[in-house]
Amino acid sequence: MTTPQEELLPATRRALTHRIAVAQAEGRTPSLVAAVVRGGRTVWHGARTSVDGHGPDENVQYRIGSITKTFTAVLVLRLRDEGLLDLGDPLEKHLPGTGVGEATIAELLAHSGGLAAESPAPWWERTPGSMRPELADVLGERPLLHPVGRRHHYSNPGYTLLGALVERLRGAPWEEVLQREVLDPLGLERTATRPSAPHAGGWAVHPWADVMLAEPAEDLGRMAPAGQLWSTTGDLARFAVFLTQGDDKVLGVETVREMRTPAAPVEAADVVDGAAYGLGLQVQSQGGRLLVGHSGSLPGFLANLTIGVEDDVAAVVLTNCTSGPLLAGVGADLVRIVAEAEPRIPEPWRPLREVDSSVLELAGQWYWGTHAFALRLTSDGGVSLGPLSGQGRRSRFRPNGDGGWTGLEGYYAGESLRAVRRPDGTVSHLDLGSFVFTRQPYEEGTAVPGGVDPEGWRGIG
Known about the structure:
Elements: H1 10-27, E1 31-38, E2 41-49, E3 62-63, H2 67-81, H3 91-94, H4 105-109, H5 135-139, H6 156-170, H7 174-186, E4 203-205, E5 212-214, H8 224-227, E6 230-231, H9 233-245, H10 253-259, H11 268-273, E7 275-277, E8 282-286, E9 289-298, E10 301-308, E11 313-319, H12 327-341, H13 357-360, E12 364-368, E13 371-377, E14 383-387, E15 395-399, E16 405-407, E17 416-421, E18 427-432, E19 435-437
Antiparallel strand pairs: 1-2, 1-11, 3-6, 4-5, 7-8, 8-9, 9-10, 10-11, 12-13, 13-14, 14-15, 15-16, 16-17, 17-18, 18-19
Helix pairs in contact: 1-12, 2-6, 2-7
């Protein structure tokens, strides 16, 4: 997967190196390793370290913390795609007796199930998982802090439940299912629940002195689906490609697109910050750029995976300190540096191989009342409808096979679009979820609800 670093311009490579050098130095971390992916391949790798003469490469393992949740979400969505569950199912249907069974699978994936953020004391990240052998030990006596489905509240126990759900429906431990269904098919040979050489040690750096303290690396037990994994920049680069393009051996492209779609209610502060959460993926708007991915942390380690889908650029950043550099910002900067210095070159325009004349005649300008819209044929066999200028409701539509279409996004997601024809076969208007679109604003003789004033358009006399 790795290609020569010369694929990026020297100035771009230097800017990337400078960014991680600043992060390592100012963040005071023992080591920091990063990779950039473009066009489905790793095009840059960089490392900074406090050890002279040695720098970690793309095969050195670091603990990735909550990026593990994205892997667990992939397993759950595989179950959905196979028809073994529905995202709207309450947990109780498949995993009874937890005490929080009213939360749906989707709500757990999106951290909107109302569960507490952490398991009961003692601090689960720094104590053996054997102290919490049962789900009841993870959930505690007060597992629900908020009404189910009402707000986004990040929950590690929620992903423990999803891991248990996977085990129940697959009849095998979460770790085995992950290996068989995700890690092996994607070729992630250096991603595992336990480290193997070469791997970094985790450190805490004193906030007021340049000295370090070794951190424990506990096995999280039942909490493993929320944060157990170790991985490398090489493997996470491959995982980033999968989250962008899909892989039919694991999840198709439409399902990974669904993972990247916001799925949880947001707080007022999140609206201001441009932050949301999908199905196992964080979603962020930054500098006009939509970024998806996940961050992770455990004592001794920080990790970040950031994907600029529209720019076709992804970044992985791993480091071995408990706190220090803000890796989400570093990852976003690495994506920005490449996207701005070497913008994505679009694929050549090509005409459609074939076109249905009954669809082609619908292309062009339409009016919803006095709002001007344009309907266009898309290269994937669907259509798109959006305002001719400015902001407004827009969506792509997929064909249903019966001459109509279903909306894929935004206000019109799931809504039905169809062309209404007169007895002679000519098009009268478009019907979009009961809204009438006509070729002329309030066109006389069409089925505009309420009718059209017979005196027509006029000025002020």
